[in-house]
Amino acid sequence: xxxxxxxxxxxxxxxxxxxxxxxxxxxxxxxxxxxxxxxxxxxxxxxxxxxxxxxxxxxxxxxxxxxxxxxxxxxxxxxxxxxxxxxxxxxxxxxxxxxxxxxxxxxxxxxxxxxxxxxxxxxxxxxxxxxxxxxxxxxxxxxxxxxxxxxxxxxxxxxxxxxxxxxxxxxxxxxxxxxxxxxxxxxxxxxxxxxxxxxxxxxxxxxxxxxxxxxxxxxxxxxxxxxxxxxxxxxxxxxxxxxxxxxxxxxxxxxxxxxxxxxxxxxxxxxxxxxxxxxxxxxxxxxxxxxxxxxxxxxxxxxxxxxxxxxxxxxxxxxxxxxxxxxxxxxxxxxxxxxxxxxxxxxxxxxxxxxxxxxxxxxxxxxxxxxxxxxxxxxxxxxxxxxxxxxxxxxxxxxxxxxxxxxxxxxxxxxxxxxxxxxxxxxxxxxxxxxxxxxxxxxxxxxxxxxxxxxxxxxxxxxxxxxxxx
Length: 470
Prior knowledge:
The protein has helices spanning 18-33, 47-52, 66-77, 118-127, 145-148, 154-160, 185-194, 200-222, 266-272, 283-289, 318-331, 340-353, 361-374, 386-398, 404-407, 411-414, 417-422, 428-445, 448-454, 457-461, and strands at 6-12, 36-42, 56-59, 82-84, 113-115, 135-137, 170-175, 226-231, 258-261, 275-278, 294-297, 314-315. By secondary structure, the protein is of the alpha/beta class.
C-alpha cells in the first residue's frame, strides 16, 4: 500500500439503516488498517466522482437502486475502481433471483461480487463463469454487529418513542415483509420476478397480506397489556414511488398498544423485545444471535422460500400464534425451539445464509477492498455528464432554501423531498463514532492489529487457500 492515504468516496442514500450498517465496519477497518480516508456523500451526488477523482468508490450494492448502478458505471468510465457489498445476500438459487437488478447493462462494474455464503457464491459462479475469480465469499457484514456492538436498552428506547416503559409487561416485535410492494408498479414488478413471472401469485400475496394483518390484529386486540412493535421493511417502498401504506401493519398503527416504526435501528429494536415474530425474514437469525426467539407467522407456507424457516417454530393461524406465544411467556421457550435438531439446523442455516457469525465478515470484505485498491490505476478520460453536473449544483443551491411544506407544493420537487431530508447525512458522523468504539474494542480483544501486522489475519479468516485469493 502507498504511503499516501487512499481516498474512498462512499455513496449512501441514508445516514442510518441497513445499507449503512453493512458498510460502516468495512470503512472503519479501511481507515484503521488500510491507510484510507473516507468521504461520505448522498447517492444523488454522482458528479462528485468527476469533481474529487477518488482512489475508489464504495457503495452498499450496485443492483438494488438505479442510482447505485449509475454510480458504479460512472466510476468505471473514469477508470476509478468500485467496491460494493450486497444488501440482500440471502437470495434463492432456484433462478428466481434477479442478480442484475437495476443493472441494465448486465455488466458488473465493481471489482468483486461479495457473497454472504458459499451457497450463493457457488450459484453465481455457475451463472457467471466468466467472472468466477471475482465472485468471492465474505459473509454478511451487517451481522457482525451482533457480536461486536452494544445496543440501546428498553427504557430509553421506549421513552424515545413516547411510550411509558412501565405500561407494558410484555413486548413483541414483528418484522414486516415486502407486502407494501403490491401498492406501486415498481414493487409489483419486483414481486413478479420473485414469483418467477407467475402473475397469479400477486393475488396470492395480497391474500397472505390480509391473513397476516388479521392475525396481528386479533393478537393486538386479545392482549392489550402487551406492546406490539411493528417494523416496516426497508425496501417495501422507494422514495420515487412511495405508493400507499398498504402493508400488513399500517392499518393497525392507531391501536394504543402498537408502535409502528418506519426507520429504526433493527438491532436496538430486537434488543428490547421479549419475542420476535416474522413472516419471512433473515432477522430471525439476527434475533437468535442476540438470544431472542423467533416465531414464523405464515398462513400459507406453500410458496418458494429459502430454508431459513426450517430452524424455527412456525404458526399458520391466530390460534397457533397465540398458543405458542403464551407457551413462550410461561415457560421461556417456544415449542421445539431448544430441540437439538433445531439448534443444529440453525447452525447450518448460518453457514447457508450469512456465511459466518464470528464478527469478522467485515474484515473478510475489507480484504477484497484492499485488493481493489492494489489494482493498477486505469486512468481514463470521460466526458463530463452535464446531467450529473446540473443535479449536483442544483441541489447544492436548493438545500439551504429547503422548507418541507413549501417544496411539497412544487410538482417537480415533491417526489424528491427525501433528497433534501437526507442531504446533509447529519446522523452519520455520530453513528460512525459510536460504532468505532465498539469495533476498536473488538479488534483489541481479537488481537487484530498484531495479526494484521504479522500478515496472518486474512489467511486465518478467508475461505479459499492463498492460491485462490483473487
